[in-house]
Specification:
The protein has one domain: Rossmann fold, CATH 3.40.50. Helix content is 40%, strand content 17%. Strands 3-2-1-4-5-6-10 form a 7-stranded parallel beta sheet, with helices on both faces. A 3-stranded mixed beta sheet has the order 7-9-11. It has a two-stranded parallel sheet with strand order 8-12.
């Protein structure tokens, strides 16, 4: 029996990871570090061990004494409007929680740890047709942009992970997640894919607040969870892995049209309502096309097409 420590367990990915661990390890000891204990008890299985604390509280984290085999650090801010409204707090949260969790890893003598990063660390990269971006390439991120607190914070957190690996030998790996969705979505999730799915379910037109030119990279939830677990067990310490299904790469506009035409059968259409400013905190347009070859070399194979992901998502919503 292995002991797992998971942060962000009440979030979409964290909760799905717990389900996967239970399937693969019939008698796991799962410890979740949560701020909101009531929410955790409402949404997670009762056999889990809950520890209530604030991951940003360095003193509280330093006093935590645990024995565990694996750590998966999922906790992060995902709301773009929060990044616009509170960039200082978002930056501090990303960096401080990551270092506090890594300090916990030092005390636990763990077998492995995975830090969940984001494809946003790549910044502005425009790929020529057919080309893909590997884990060794990075583009520009505008430092003088409030919304950049998230991708720059993620970059810094990745560097902190690497520094702990080099200086202290912490067996940490980095999972750079593409946009991930499928079954199990939280009712409060308002990311673009959730908005598109609700529009198709309700027979309402999809309204874009941008031109939809930004390239999207997607991965089914089951595939992403399998990818994270593959990185945890088989990944190389100190390295990063893209978690993406290369088949599911298209612009936001193309995805909206796919939902209108293929999911709703042409019953809804795409409309545009583009504000002059960016009050919702949308990330800048990017032509990023991620490569998943490094993770696939570990034996991971994604299976869910974008259409299947939407069908799963809408069926779950109903």
């Amino acid at each position: 029996m292995y002991t797992y420590v998971i942060t962000g367990a009440t979030g979409y990915i964290g909760s799905q990871l717990i389900q996967r661990i239970v399937m693969e390890d019939k008698s796991p000891n799962i410890i979740v570090l949560v701020r909101n204990l009531d929410k955790a008890r409402e949404t997670l299985p009762s056999f889990i061990n809950f520890i209530q604390l604030d991951l940003t509280d360095t003193n509280a984290m330093a006093s935590l004494q645990l024995e565990c085999d694996y750590i998966i650090h999922c906790a992060t801010v995902t709301n773009s409007s929060e990044m616009i409204a509170h960039p200082v707090e978002v930056t501090q949260s990303i960096i401080n929680t990551t270092q506090n969790v890594l300090e916990l890893a030092r005390r636990c003598s763990i077998k492995s740890m995975v830090y969940l990063s984001s494809m946003e660390v790549y910044g502005d990269i425009n790929c020529s047709y057919g080309s893909r971006v590997s884990e060794t390439e990075l583009g520009n991120i505008d430092i003088l942009n409030t919304r950049s607190c998230y991708p720059l914070g993620k970059r810094m957190a990745e560097n902190i992970c690497y520094s702990y690996y080099k200086e202290y030998g912490i067996p940490v790996k980095i999972a750079r997640l593409a946009q991930t969705f499928g079954r199990g979505i939280l009712p409060t999730d308002n990311r673009v894919f959730a908005q598109f799915a609700r529009a198709a379910r309700d027979g309402k037109n999809i309204v874009l607040n941008t031109k939809g030119n930004s390239m999207g990279n997607y991965c089914g939830m089951e595939d992403a969870i399998a990818g994270i677990m593959t990185i945890l067990v088989h990944g190389t310490d100190g390295e990063a892995y893209n978690v993406v299904n290369e088949v599911n790469t298209m612009t936001i506009r193309q995805m909206a049209e796919l939902v209108c035409n293929e999911i709703s059968g042409g019953k809804i259409v795409v409309e545009y309502d583009i504000p002059k400013e960016n009050p919702l905190g949308f990330a800048p347009d990017t032509g990023l096309r991620l490569s998943g070859q490094k993770l696939e070399a570990l034996g991971w194979k994604p299976r869910k097409h974008l259409l299947d992901m939407y069908k799963d998502l809408i069926a779950d919503m109903r």
